[in-house]
Amino acid sequence: MELTTVERIKLLEILPPQGDILSLKIVRKLRETLSFNEDELKLLGTKYEFVCPFQDKVDGEPTSCKNKGFWPIAPKCAEHDILMVKTGQLNFHFTPEMQAKMKEIHMGLQAITIVSDTLKRANETKQLTDTHISLYDKFFPPIPEVIEEAMSE
Length: 153
What we know:
The protein has 7 helices and 7 strands; from the N terminus they run E-H-H-H-E-E-E-E-E-H-E-H-H-H. The chain has 2 domains: about 1-40 and about 95-153, no CATH class; about 45-90, no CATH class. Strand 3 and strand 4 (about 60-65) form a beta hairpin. It has about 150 residues and is an alpha+beta fold. The chain has a 3-stranded antiparallel beta sheet with strand order 5-2-6, with no helix packed on it. It has helices at about 5-15, 20-35, 40-45, 95-100, 110-125, 135-140, 145-150; strands at about 1-5, 45-50, 55-60, 60-65, 70, 85-90, 100-105.
C-alpha cells in the first residue's frame, strides 16, 4: 500500500500502544516500516527541541536554565556553555517534495486488521481529523452510491 508522508505520520500517531504480545510485535515492526530514514528526515527539515540541562539552587530552591528551542543538531547553551539535550519533541517542515513523496508500505493481514480496527474505533469515537481522511479511505474505500445518497440528504 502506498502512503504519503502525512499518512505515514498519522498512522504512526494512532497505532495502539497496548495489546497482546503478538499485536505489539506487529505494531513495532509496522512502526519501523513507517518511520523515516535519515534522507527523509533531511527532506522534512527536521528540527529537534533541545533544552539546557543546567540546574542550580537559588535561595535554596532548585532552578533550571530556561534556554530551549528547535535545532537540527544539539547547540551549546549560550549562558552556560554546555551542550543542550533533546526533549523528544520534533518539528517538521513539509516541503512540496516531501508532501508528494510516496512510500510502499507492506502490511500483512494482521497488521491491516490492527490498523483498520484502530481507524474504525477512532471514527466511532469521533477522534479523526481531516488529515486522516485519505488514510481512512485507503482502508475503507468509499462506496460511490453511499456518498451520493449522503450528499443528497
